[in-house]
Structure formats: structure tokens, C-alpha cells
Design a protein that fits this description.
This protein is mainly α. The protein folds into two domains: 37 residues, no CATH class; 147 residues, no CATH class. The chain has eight helices and two strands; from the N terminus they run ββαααααααα. A hairpin with a 4-residue loop joins β1 and β2.
Length: 215
Amino acid sequence: MSCPLCRVRKARRACPGIGQEICTVCCGTKRIVEISCPPTCIYLTTSQKHPAAVVKRQTEQDLVVLMGALGRVSEPQLQVFFVIHTFISRFRHDGSGQLVDADVAEAAGALAASFETAAKGVLYEHQATAAAAESLRRELKLFLAQIAGDPSSGGAASATRFEREVAVVLRGIERGARHDAPGVGSGPVDYLSLVARILHERPPDAAPRPSIIIP
């Protein structure tokens, strides 16, 4: 029997994520990214403890591409980047489906523009045009406001500084999601797939509830 995912190679491995047997190649390359693997999957747990060389190489390549999009960022900014993308990976627009790269690029660009304008002393809320992008922008803004407004973060001055730092990160996300960085690809979710591989995140399945606070 051929693998139901690639329809080329022979199915040899029982996949609890789709309830069918799949080939070893699809199991190794589509795990988490395209297949919602349950935590009890023996192949998932084994790969996390002993990742194959091909997975390590892919991760290294993905990191090179990602850093090319982000540019020079500080360690705190890199942490914020991963916090933001953990949020994005779990976001659903009105429960209607997964975001595409263009939505992320537009939302990140609009929010970055708002922060940059505020840094100049002008309060103006830039909005995205696409419905999914605007929904993401609003929710992400609220999420980041929770981080910036945490009492331990140092007050209003620190919150303003935080927004300036986040604007740099958002511009990097915008470049990556617009496929401006070499190696990202040109598919509708190539950038999101790249970040998902690095984060080891499964496809989004529920609207997020902000729970990560970084002073």
C-alpha cells in the first residue's frame, strides 16, 4: 500500500496522527508541521530525544534563513520574536482557518508602524486591510500590551522602550513573511512552516490565551 500523503513511497509506519500507515520519509519530514502528532506517538518522542541528522541539518538551514530575515537583533529581541511566533502559531481568525504568510506580514507591518509612529510622539493606529491580518494585529497588540504593562517591567518609560524594541522584531517578521529574505520560499505558508519547524509547533488548533509574560 502506498503512503496516503505522498502517494509514492510504501506505507510502513503506523501514524496515530492521521490514523493510517505512512512512509518513513513523510513521517520524518511532515511530523508536527503538517501532521498533528499526539504526544504519545513513539516516533515523535524518539525523534525529540534523538533527532536524525537530516532534521538537524534542516533546523540549521532554517535558522540561517530566519536570522537573515531578522537581521541583527539582541538576545531579548530574539526571545520576543519566539514569544510572538508562539502566539501566531496558535492564532485562528474567527475559528475559520490557519493564517498565511501574507496575513502575518501585513499584521506585523501595521503594528510595527504604529509603534514607530508612537515613538515619534504621534499616536496613530495603523490597520491591516485583510480581515485575517487585522484580526491578528488587534489580538497581537493586546498580547504585547500585557507584556509591556506588566508591573515588574518598569512603568511607562520601559513600556515605550519595549515598543521600540518590538518594532524592530516585527519588521523582521514582516520581511520574512513577505519572503524578502533569501531561502524562505514562495509558497503561501513557507515562512510560517519554517518557523514552525524551528519551534516544533503543530498547526494551530485553537485561539490563543496569552500566558507568557516577559518583564
